[in-house]
């Protein structure tokens, strides 16, 4: 089965790794510890364990409050919105400020067509000499 990236959030009690590197809610490293010890800390402080990096040995988990998890999810959503979509195409058009009227009208029609097709359009006007 294909392994897909889970959304950022609490992992609850399902931790597939035996040894974890744990960071507390203030960002301080608590070092490597056994899964049971991390779960005990989670229960004691009323926090949730969140997987930060799983491609390192041991995987890094952080103890977070529900509010911290929510804020981090909002940050990641903003980043995702800001990044260009993979299917999105950017068209670039450059012309001189001394362009003839007919040529300018032709380019405006081309830009309108690209915008209809949901392309991003970047127009550069060079100053005539």
UniProtKB/TrEMBL annotation:
One of its GO terms (molecular function) is ribosome binding. InterPro entries: T_IF-3_C_sf, T_IF-3_N_sf, Translation_initiation_fac_3, Translation_initiation_fac_3_N. Coiled coil: none annotated. GO terms for cellular component: mitochondrion. One of its GO terms (biological process) is ribosome disassembly. Residues 11-78 form the Translation initiation factor 3 N-terminal domain. Keywords: Initiation factor, Protein biosynthesis. It comes from the Eukaryota. Belongs to the IF-3 family. This is IF3M factor. It comes from Pomatorhinus ruficollis (streak-breasted scimitar babbler). The lineage of its organism: Eukaryota, Metazoa, Chordata, Craniata, Vertebrata. The gene is Mtif3.
């Amino acid at each position: 089965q294909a392994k897909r990236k889970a959304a950022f959030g609490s992992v609850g009690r399902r931790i597939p790794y035996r040894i974890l590197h744990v960071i507390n809610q203030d960002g301080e490293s608590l070092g490597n510890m056994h899964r049971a010890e991390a779960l005990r800390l989670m229960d004691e402080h009323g926090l949730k364990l969140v997987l930060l990096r799983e491609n390192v040995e041991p995987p890094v988990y952080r103890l977070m409050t529900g509010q911290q998890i929510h804020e981090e999810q909002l940050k990641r959503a903003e980043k995702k919105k800001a990044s260009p979509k993979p299917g999105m195409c950017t068209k670039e058009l450059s012309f001189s400020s001394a362009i003839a009227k007919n040529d300018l009208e032709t380019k405006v029609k081309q830009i309108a067509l690209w915008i209809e097709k949901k392309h991003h359009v970047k127009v550069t006007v060079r100053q005539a000499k």
